[in-house]
Amino acid sequence: MSPDHELLLRAVREAGACALKRFQKEQKVWRKSKYHPVCEADIETNAVLHDRLMGERPDYGWLSEESEDNSKRLTCRRVWVVDPIDGTNSYLKGLPEFAVSVALIEDGAALMGAVFNPAREELFEAVKGGGARLNGDSIAVSACTEVAAMKILASRSEHREAGWPERFQTDNVHAMSSIAYKLALVSDGRFDATASAWPKADWDICAGCLLVEEAGGAISSIAGRELGFNQERPLHPTCLASNGHLHQALIAELSDWAEK
Questions:
Q1: Fewer CB atoms < 10 Å away: N or C end of the chain?
Q2: pTM higher than the cut 0.70
Q3: Contact between residue 110 and residue 103 where contact means Cβ atoms under 8 Å apart
């Protein structure tokens, strides 16, 4: 295990413990937008990650949902990409469907990443070229090859407003808020695919995308384009993850949602 990998896992575990302290407890909440609440635990967990990761790697860049962005990261070869609590809506509702998500980018590509759901004691992690693991055990994507039989994850908001149950068989569409956790669940084969027709930032998907790739799956935009990270505007119009067998069929099925 490299020093950066060891640091990443140690920081993510500590951040997960911080998030869990306030889970299912009252705390201050405010809103950045209609679908994006922020709570005290978001800020506290972000501080833990920043202190640990930047404290030991001050020459690395930093990009976090809960920190003000600046251009310094664009000059750094390696950058920490952080979502302190992905799935804050679920977290605030007391649902164990949230995760701490952290990736280390090198030259615009994910070098290593971890997605930790402390409420379920599930630590997913991967290093580029080294496979993906859940709590230390190797994991792999599913073997499903038929769209009619696949189990697909959609966000609760998209499930309500974007017509997922009408597009696919209703029983096969499962709603969940955290995209990072959804990507992790695709990586270990519990689900066959997930997608978002709404924009996602680097911090939402970077670690989870590496998990899916290292577990044998495929990642792209809904239009089939490669996803690059640590750009000046770290935002992706769409995202599609699958076990690989279903990827081209899903690109065709979702083509009307693809970015132009």
A1: C
A2: yes
A3: yes
